[in-house]
Amino acid sequence: MSSLLALTMSLPVRALAAGEALIQSGEAGGEMYVLETGRLSVEREGVEIATIEEPGALVGEMSVLLGIDHSATVRAIGPARVRVVENALAFLERTPLVALHVATLACARLDATSALLAELKKEHGGKTEQGMLARIFGALNAPPRGAVARTHE
Question: Which of 18, 21, 33, 145 has its CA 20 to 30 A from that of 42?
């Protein structure tokens, strides 16, 4: 399968300065980004939850696919460049190979998350954390609340 960098070669590039926000939590989505160079920090509710540094990494797809506002802030750690996928839902409809990449990525993240949660549940069985783990497992199995992919016109 071709890489996202190869599949988005013709798309516009946005340069980010150190500390510049690419995505702001609570803002409406619609674009996705593919990291070309640099490092990005992902923060949710003031807590850093990830660092993205692999060229070809995808950012912003949750908002696009779920039709919801961005749930995290993504900021450049140093100078960075991203490819901009404007009107991403329409782009995915026109480019099935990119859509397959996005689906594969989403499944891989869900698989890794559920494996980690299973490991945590084994380690903390019977302790007070058990209630939190049960809520997390429930959230993973629940349909998205009010999330419907946006239509484009």
Answer: 145
Q: Is 51 in contact with 68 (CB distance < 8 Å)?
A: no
Contacts 24+ apart (CB under 8 A), 120-125: none
For residues 34 and 98, the answer to whether their CB atoms sit within 8 Å is: no
pLDDT string in tens for the chain (153-residue length): 558 999 999 999 999 999 999 999 999 988 999 999 999 999 999 889 889 999 999 999 999 999 999 999 999 999 999 999 999 999 999 999 999 999 998 888 888 888 887 787 787 764 545 566 566 656 555 555 554 444 444
Closest CA relative to residue 38, chosen from 86, 84, 87, 75: 75
Geometric angle at alpha carbon 86, from 83 and 92, rounded to 5°: 95
